[in-house]
Fold:
Amino acid sequence: MTTDPAVACVGVGRAYGERTVLRDVSFELPAGQTLAVFGANGAGKTTLLRMLATLLRPHAGDVRVLGSELPQQGWAVRGRLGFLGHEPLLYSALSARENLRFHARLHGVGRERVDGLLAAVGMELRADEPIRLLSRGMVQRVAVCRAVLHEPELLLLDEPYANLDPAAVALVRPLLTGGTRVLISHDVEGGLAEADLVLGLRGSEAVLLGHDAAQVRKLYA
Amino acid sequence: MRSAVIALVRKDLLAELRSFEAVPAMLMFTISAFALFHFGLDRSSLEGSLASGVLWVTLLLAAVLGMNRLFVTEREQGGFDAFLLAPVDRTAMFVAKVIVLFGFLVVVEVVAVAAFAVLLLEPGLGRAMPGLPLVLLLADAGLAVIGTLVGALAVQTRARDLIVPLLALPLSIPLLIAGANATAPLLARSGAAALEGRWLAILGLYDVVFALLAYAVFDYLLED
Structure:
């Protein structure tokens, strides 16, 4: 018996105007595993993640996420993905609790889940302050809560531990581990430690790498 | 979809109550515009079609300010992405934004029309009731629909502040014509005449046509 991969890309490409950001990207990510994506700034990591999240259309190739073709069947995937990008996707005028309750309502999740997550990331005492008054680390903790609020089947994570101190990393890590993940990281050792598969992006092209830190570092040379 | 619309409307109202960005700006603009008309026309009082024209042009331009702000937080703070990742009908955002802009316009008009009556209107408002609120509400519905459509289109561009007035003002001309013509008899010094049904019909027709058009195309405006 064969199981469909959680994510499958075949010959995927994407351009912004004349500039090709990704060309002929192919890989498969089995369910329950973590794909770490490495590459220098501008290599196309965020573009790849946004395509998997249905936020960008591929200009070439086939993208299949959780059994659905993108972008045609994007509607079937939304709500099953947890996306944590560079932006926290939180409204600065609202408090952490109000933001999470807003997202909980969009995803059909109960309020008790919001309170539980805020407690899990140590934000109960600051949960009613506007996001704009929180430190970047605290905002990142709330953003992690937002990404996992609906218990997604696939997590798409772009440097999820950015702005977090070691204690905060220890708080959020359990929320971000255990499922299928695509993880963008600039922390070579940390990323490799979490990865089952390693994808390197360089010059708009992608190659599957082994767990070799030296090989990954060449991407940044 | 109802739950998503309620969540979006609640979020927008909460954000406006915290930041006071859109409604106070629209109100300040209307009061300033009435003062400018007062001095520019060198008249201490207006009535009939002139009063109607001044009122409608001022309200229309104030509405453009609200349209400009309608999607700014969605764009700047990632609201579009968060919404697109949720398993909800995208029309929910259109409906929610129409409701929010409609609400903003009503709040502004409650204050602005009262200020207009005090600062510029000769006959007083008493005789314009209840026709004037009816005309305003019908026009507000159209403005809210157009504003949401144009706001969603413009916010994806760098020249948002230019695109909104450039698109919204021409599209609002039928509303302005119908609204001003329906209102003029209500503000006559000689006493309010009855509302003309044809102008109300034009306003209603405009609302329906643009609501259907916006409903059909709004999803595409949110896509990559």
Summary: Chain B touches chain A at residues 3-4, 6-7, 10-11, 14-15, 18-19, 73, 77-79, 81-88, 223-224 (CB under 8 Å). The radius of gyration of chain B is 18 Å.
